[in-house]
Amino acid sequence: MRKLIECVPNFSEGRNMDIIKQITDAIESVDGIKLLDVDPGAATNRTVVTIVGEPEPVMDAAILGMKKAKELIDMSKHQGAHPRFGATDVCPLVPVANITMEETVEYARQLAKRAGEELEYPIYCYEFAALSPERKNLAHVRSGEYEALEKKLKEEQWKPDFGPATFCPKSGATAISARNFLVAFNVNLNTTSTRRANAIAFDVRERGRVKRTGHPITGKPALDENGAKIMVPGSLKSVKAIGWFIEEYGIAQISMNLTDISITSVHEAYDEVFKKALDRGIRVSGSELVGVIPLDAMLEAGRYFLTKQNRSLGVSHEELIKVAVKSMGLDDLKPFDPRKNIIEYLIEDGNDKKLIDMDLAAFADETASESPAPGGGSISAYVGALGISLGTMVANLSAHKPGVNWEDQWEKFSEQAEAGQKLKDQLVHLVDEDTNAFNKIMDAIRLPKGSDAEKAARLQAIEDASKYAIEVPFMVMEKSLASMDVIKAMAEYGNPNSVSDAGVGALCARTAVMGAYLNVKINCADLEDKTFVDDILKRGADIERKANELEQEILKITNEKISK
């Protein structure tokens, strides 16, 4: 699965659309990134750009955008309402999918190092990427803004993390960070009262409200020993919130910024606002997502609401998203389109033709055509996906089976269904990946072979592609064998009316293992790395043996239950 990060560079130009366009054109010139949003502000004289993709192309795009900003923006003439100290003022990286914050921090520091070397002006690291505790806070790093930068750079304590400690009047400096994903999320209320909406916002936001002496509304603010107002914290961490009235819809909303959805998720924020609103006699009628959200956040929301219903969590991504949308009323004000609101779906290349997007007849026709792909590897992966799908179906049917000794076990069956869904998704992914592996070999074979260097590079590319074409069906073997544990459990403990489905699932899984092993073996034939070949064939034979044994065990259980 692809590692995805978001990059949100802020450029100190919000009025000249030609300059903004040149910067975003430079960013979009990099293959493998998606420009999600360009948000210019005239008052702030600042443009916030949002891009997403795999780390390397995202960093390349960020560098090109920063270079263009250095060329076109003159900070000595800049005026705007927003704090700033550079042409590219800040450039945070945000983990989106299949990547940790620790990995994102490393990429942010790599980007900072590249920027310092290639752009030759001061670069600072802040937030999670900070190289010292005192530079964690952006406000501290940017203190005094552009106007104080020349003097600061003469002081040892303000030596930049990367790049020269030299004042560049035109470019200023840039702060680069890694931070958590921020979600803008509004909750709709059945009131037009901004005052009541604000009261709920103060109940939930981390900062809370001012403590008052005497009357909770009209009383004087309580002060600490330093004369500062004492705050009563709200119930949600990493949440900023305010109440407002939306003229377009004729309702009040709680407008929230969830600054770290690993601490307070979208569904937790929704439920807490729901509860606080109800305490004040107000109903929540739905919610609204502003911008985009990672897929995992929506899937977790779906699982959260299914758990509250004592329903199995082992359902498809589409079903989890549907449950999340309906449970939070995300389609209350306008339709919620996963293809436009979920990052991973938004960046999918619509030109990519996938086998898994075909209907059953088209997939069969494509397989039967004269094209060499899809072949046995893709078919093995798909058969494996069908096998675990049957096991998952039995788990879901068992989780929802009414009656004594069943309803109290729904969590156990839900866990099996979740495991099955994960394996199914992995095997479905491998259907196309097997064809991609074949195409890599063909691409390697077509490489030039004129000079000795070209011949050597071509042979190495063929060797590497061939290894990948072995590793993909080997993964099919591993996932299909793992699926047989779920299938066996469902044959033993699942709904007895569906035991034959578990049996068919076992037959499919064993077929997937053996079919994939045939592909492993044929692709090993011409590989030069015999150590690799010996190891993979030995492990493959072990998986094949275990799959045969498990198939017999599952079929024995299945036939015994059917005979009863």
Task: Explain the layout of strands and helices.
Layout: E1 4-7, E2 10-11, H1 17-28, E3 33-41, E4 46-53, H2 55-72, E5 88-97, H3 101-119, E6 123-127, H4 138-141, H5 145-152, E7 174-178, E8 183-189, H6 194-204, E9 209-210, E10 231-232, E11 239-246, E12 251-258, H7 266-279, E13 284-290, H8 295-308, H9 317-328, H10 338-341, H11 343-346, H12 360-368, H13 376-399, H14 410-445, H15 452-493, H16 499-524, H17 530-563
Parallel strand pairs: 5-7, 6-7
Antiparallel strand pairs: 1-4, 1-5, 2-4, 2-5, 3-4, 8-12, 8-13, 9-10, 11-12
Helix pairs in contact: 1-2, 2-3, 6-7, 8-9, 13-14, 13-15, 13-16, 14-15, 15-16, 15-17, 16-17
Features:
564 residues, Alpha-Beta Plaits, Four Helix Bundle (Hemerythrin (Met), subunit A), four-stranded antiparallel β-sheet, 13 strands
Structural notes for this entry:
- This protein has 564 residues and is an alpha+beta fold.
- It folds into three domains: 4-178, Formiminotransferase-cyclodeaminase, Chain B, domain 1, CATH 3.30.990.10; 183-346, Formiminotransferase, C-terminal subdomain (Alpha-Beta Plaits); 355-563, Formiminotetrahydrofolate cyclodeaminase monomer, up-and-down helical bundle (Four Helix Bundle (Hemerythrin (Met), subunit A)).
- The chain is 52% helix and 14% strand.
- It is built from 17 helices and 13 strands.
- It has helices at residues 17-28, 55-72, 101-119, 138-141, 145-152, 194-204, 266-279, 295-308, 317-328, 338-341, 343-346, 360-368, 376-399, 410-445, 452-493, 499-524, 530-563, and strands at 4-7, 10-11, 33-41, 46-53, 88-97, 123-127, 174-178, 183-189, 209-210, 231-232, 239-246, 251-258, 284-290.
- The longest helix has 42 residues, at 452-493.
- The radius of gyration is 29 Å and the shape is globular.
- The model has no long low-confidence stretch (mean pLDDT 93).
